[in-house]
Amino acid sequence: MLTRRAFSATLLGAVAVPFVGRAFAQTPSDIRSQIANMSKLHAIMVQRGDEIIVAEAPRGPGLDRVANIKSCSKSIIGLLTGSAIAQGAIPSVNATLGEIAPSIIPADATPGVENLTIEDLVTLRAGLEGTSGRNYGAWVNSDNWVSFALRRPMVASPGGRMIYSTGTTHILGAVLAVATGKNLLEQARAVLGQPLGIEIPAWTRDPQGFYFGGNEMALTPRAMLRIGALMRDQGRFDTDQIISADWIDQSTQARTRSPYSGLDYGYGWFLSNSGFIIARGYGGQIIAAHPEKNLAVVITSDPTSPARSGGYFGQLMDLLEGPVLSLV
Predict the structure, then answer these.
(1) CB 232, CB 296: distance < 8 Å
(2) pLDDT in tens, 246-291
(3) Cα–Cα distance between 293 and 229 in angstroms, integer?
(4) Which residues sit opposite 12 in a β-bridge?
(5) Exposure on the CB side of residue 98, measured as CA atoms within 13 A
(6) 267 and which of 77, 106, 248, 251 could share a cystine (Cβ 3.0–4.6 Å)?
(7) Could you give the CA distance from residue 47 to residue 222 in angstroms, rounded to a whole number?
């Protein structure tokens, strides 16, 4: 850990200097100062070990009311996938859609989708044209979200490059529901909610009743922090092993890379060069863990405003990899 040293007033005020360029120890007060002018940021919490050392909500609904975590939901689906495999509902990440959930495949599906594996889905490497971005509206306005996603043309080889698509994670969520016999809400509450002592409200369902697999979940920042600490602590909470340590290890191995942020991606989690394990949601929602530094971090932000890698999300990464990593 870096030795505490004093900041000059000029350095503290130099907004133009990137956070990552500041190799100085930081204090919680410094973090408060640095987020004061980040108008999109609603809340930030940092836990080191068992101690919450930063808990600030300068705007937004606060630390004890739910926030839409957007695509951080994809990382939650990743944890539920590991649980389903551990329970034997799914034999392995190599199991195929046709083996596990043939009932959700429409008659006019794109040829080959029955051979998509759980790993293809959880790593966003299904090869199907994405349903995010310009295709999102047509997808969520369709009468069958799973069928719509499975009818997208194959634009890459399955298991190849990452194609960011909420439809892919929604397919995975439907597979989990079929394989376990429990909907995603029931799974989330049983696997994470009850063991972690957090509330998980019901969220959006598709026309067939499948809970949205990859968007629209809502958690309080305090609940998000417990999930961050779970990732930091190899799937443990207090003395209980909630998610297998092996699944956490598998989840945090780079399988592909985001074409947008350049971050590596595992089983539902982004991975930074500095050692952060990250769930990322639209607008700047973040659940992060840094096992080496014994840190868990959450950030909630305005869920209606984009947070691009070259813009606000980049600022949040600078905040994580600079001041937060340098906390003393």
Answers:
(1) yes
(2) 999 999 999 999 999 999 999 999 999 999 999 999 999 999 999 9
(3) 12
(4) none
(5) 9
(6) 251
(7) 10
CA distance 88 to 86: 5
Q: What is the pLDDT of residues 174-191, one digit of tens each?
A: 999 999 999 999 999 999
Q: d(Cα 244, Cα 252) in Å, to the nearest integer?
A: 13
Instruction: Look up residue 73 and give its two tokens.
Output: 């939901």
pLDDT score at 175 = 98
Tokens of 268: 């539902």
Look at residue 111 in the predicted model and tell me its pLDDT. Answer: 98
Count of other CB atoms within 10 angstroms of residue 3: 7
Element (H, E) at 170: helix 166-180
Cα separation, 208 vs 128, in Å, equals 21
Q: What is the DSSP pairing of strand 51-56 with strand 67-70?
A: unpaired
Strand 295-301 to strand 41-48: parallel, antiparallel, or no bridges (unpaired)?
antiparallel
Written as one string, the DSSP assignment of 4-65 is P-PPPHHHHH-TTS-GGG--S-B-HHHHHHHHTT-TTEEEEEEEETTEEEEEE-SSSS-SSS
The residues with which 264 forms a beta bridge, in sequence order, are 257, 271
* Average pLDDT estimate for 185-204: 98
What are the counts of helices (DSSP H) followed by strands (DSSP E) for the chain? 13, 12
Q: Which has the closest alpha carbon to 324: 11, 44, 72, 69?
A: 44
| Domain architecture of the chain: domains with CATH | 25-324 (3.40.710.10)
Q: What is the pLDDT of residues 144-174, one digit of tens each?
A: 999 999 999 999 999 999 999 999 999 999 9
Report d(CA 104, CA 92) in Å as an integer. Answer: 19
What token pair was written down for 108?
Answer: 């006019």
pLDDT of residue 21: 41
The residues with which 286 forms a beta bridge, in sequence order, are 280, 299
Chain-centroid distance, C-alpha 168: 14
| Nearest residue to 69 (alpha-carbon basis) of 285, 289, 306, 308 | 285
Quick one: average pLDDT of 18-42? 79
